[in-house]
Design a protein that fits this description.
about 150 residues; mainly alpha; 2 domains; about 0% strand; globular
């Protein structure tokens, strides 16, 4: 069974401009197919934060992904058509700022940095997007390149 690491960053947006939406599409798609790496959770954290910001219940989003197996453009089209979706420029801006401004707690930051051999001395950007990227890269290296 494949154990795929979702290598799209939370700092990536698709044509709609919503950060993390491409990653949540990938994670939910991999999870629905039984192919996501076991270290990755689905439907919480940034995933739920993103669907909540869009005004889409997580269960509806995941059911769409699981039942339809959409491409990313098909996912965005479904999001745009969702009744009551929140896609104003202000909604997207607030969400994107929340994604970019979130910092993990001290224990999570230290754990990620320790796992890749970096010191927790303040020299690394503390934002969760950057720390999650480092975590993804470390997991990828350990699984695929070691």
């Amino acid at each position: 069974m494949s154990q795929i690491i979702p290598m799209i960053s939370s700092g990536t947006a698709g044509p709609l401009g919503v950060l993390h939406l491409p990653r949540v599409w990938l994670k939910a798609s991999l999870h629905a197919a039984g192919k996501i790496h076991p270290d990755y959770t689905v439907g919480c954290g940034y995933d739920k934060m993103t669907t909540d910001a869009l005004g889409i219940p997580w269960d509806d989003f995941y059911a769409f992904i699981k039942d339809s197996k959409p491409t990313y453009p098909q996912c965005e089209a479904w999001v745009k058509a969702f009744p009551g979706v929140k896609l104003s420029q202000a909604d997207i801006y607030r969400h994107n700022q929340a994604i970019l401004g979130y910092c993990h707690g001290d224990d999570t930051r230290k754990g990620i940095l320790d796992s890749v051999g970096l010191p927790d001395d303040g020299s690394c950007n503390p934002g969760a997007v950057d720390l999650n990227n480092i975590d993804d890269w470390g997991t990828f290296h350990a699984q695929e390149l070691k």
